[in-house]
């Protein structure tokens, strides 16, 4: 089955063509990072306007790179939620128009399931699967007992982990988006600042990062008031250590308690080197559990993951 995926949930305009959930024929992404960087974050109205400007070009480029025509497509999958409303409307309307004009089957996909299925492109799933979803808008632990069967174990009660990275990075004067820059800076520093590890209740799979973010702000504000020098590399390392330690411990606890065979990490923060290193080290001592991360190009928003998720949603709904 040849699936065309469309992703416009935030500030990437993306179209991809994938065969049977594995073979990526094209994966075209137009990024607006340079446009929004001067604002320190995504401006929704500007994002939706640029989606309108680029969506037709991205469709055409994806078909060209795949060496296919519209008549070759079996299914169109598009992100329908969550995301910026204006941006989502552009992708949904373009995908519907393309599908209806060419008499192609059409499905709408949850953006988070797309991030989870980004892992499937390069690795089969071994159920039960535990998905750690870590992105700019979400932090969740999800169990999958089979394709398209989800059970939410826990989620953030306030800031998402990616949001915390961006806000802390902004305080440190790092460029937007701050996640990668903060990760890189952390590897040059040492854990010297006393920052909290927020576990909540000992049996909880929920997350909270607002207190940690506030702790970093307090360190910076107090140092500025006293005219003390801040070692930002050490502060970045200390912040990342607090984040990664909590994420890894809760993930490993969930994997052991629920007899998980496969841990997948999904979302933009899956690209974080500190998280990758810590999880690989933790899973090494757990025989029988497989761990996968998407390739870097599939961590951030893209349409290949939407095509794969749409493929499995269609199979689940039709019983094929």
Describe the structure.
This protein is of the alpha/beta class and 320 residues long. The protein folds into two domains: 2-118 and 299-318, Nucleotidyltransferase, domain 5, CATH 3.30.420; 125-293, Nucleotidyltransferase, domain 5 (2-Layer Sandwich), CATH 3.30.420. Helices cover 45% and strands 20% of the residues. The protein has eleven helices and ten strands. The protein has helices spanning 33-36, 44-66, 85-101, 111-117, 161-171, 178-186, 210-225, 232-257, 273-284, 296-299, 304-318, and strands at residues 2-7, 12-19, 23-31, 75-81, 105-110, 129-134, 139-146, 149-155, 262-266, 290-292. It has a five-stranded mixed sheet, sandwiched between helices. Strands 8-7-6-9-10 form a five-stranded mixed sheet, sandwiched between helices. Helix 4 packs across helix 11, helix 5 (161-171) runs parallel beside helix 7 (210-225) and helix 8 (232-257) packs parallel to helix 9 (273-284). The mean pLDDT is 96.
In which range does the helix fraction lie? 40-55%
* Structural class computed from helices and strand pairing: alpha/beta
Number of domains: 2
CATH-assigned fold name of the largest domain: Nucleotidyltransferase, domain 5
Strand order of the largest sheet: 3-2-1-4-5
Order of helices and strands: EEEHHEHEHEEEHHHHEHEHH
Using DSSP, what is the number of strands? Answer: 10
User: What sort of overall outline do the alpha carbons produce when their principal axes are compared?
Assistant: globular
**Mean residue pLDDT:** 96
Note the beta-strand portion: 15-25%
Detail the poorly predicted runs: none
Q: Please count the helical segments.
A: 11
End-to-end Cα distance, whole Å, is: 11 Å
How would a crystallographer describe the biggest sheet? 5 strands, mixed
- Specify Rg, calculated over alpha carbons: 20 Å
What is the CATH superfamily classification of the largest domain? ATPase, nucleotide binding domain
CATH class of the largest domain: Alpha Beta
* CATH architectural category of the largest domain: 2-Layer Sandwich
């Amino acid at each position: 089955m040849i699936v065309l995926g469309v992703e416009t949930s935030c500030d990437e305009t993306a179209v991809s063509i994938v065969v049977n959930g594995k073979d990526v024929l094209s994966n075209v992404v137009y990024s607006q990072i340079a446009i929004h960087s001067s604002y320190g974050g995504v401006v929704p109205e500007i994002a939706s306007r640029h989606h309108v400007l680029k969506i037709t070009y991205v469709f055409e480029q994806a078909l060209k790179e795949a060496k296919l025509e519209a008549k070759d497509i079996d299914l169109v999958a598009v992100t329908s939620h969550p995301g910026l409303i204006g941006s989502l409307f552009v992708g949904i309307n373009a995908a519907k128009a393309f599908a209806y004009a060419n008499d192609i089957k059409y499905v709408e996909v949850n953006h988070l399931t797309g991030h989870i299925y980004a892992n499937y492109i390069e690795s089969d799933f071994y159920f039960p699967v535990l998905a750690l979803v870590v992105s700019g808008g979400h932090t969740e632990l999800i169990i999958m007992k089979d394709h398209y069967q989800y059970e939410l174990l826990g989620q953030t009660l306030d800031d998402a982990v990616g949001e915390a990275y961006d806000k802390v990075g902004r305080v440190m004067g790092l460029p937007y988006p701050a996640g990668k820059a903060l990760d890189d800076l952390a590897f040059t520093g040492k854990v010297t600042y006393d920052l909290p590890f927020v576990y909540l209740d000992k049996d909880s799979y929920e997350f909270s990062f607002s207190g940690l973010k506030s702790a970093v702000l307090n360190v910076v504000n107090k140092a500025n008031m006293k005219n003390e020098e801040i070692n930002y590399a050490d502060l970045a390392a200390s912040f990342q250590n607090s984040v990664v330690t909590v994420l890894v411990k809760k993930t490993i606890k969930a994997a052991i308690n629920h007899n998980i065979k496969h841990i997948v990490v999904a979302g933009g923060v899956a690209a974080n080197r500190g998280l990758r290193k810590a999880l690989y080290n933790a899973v090494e001592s757990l025989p029988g559990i497989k761990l996968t991360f998407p390739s870097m190009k599939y961590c951030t928003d893209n349409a290949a993951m939407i095509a794969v998720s749409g493929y499995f949603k269609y199979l689940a709904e039709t019983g094929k």
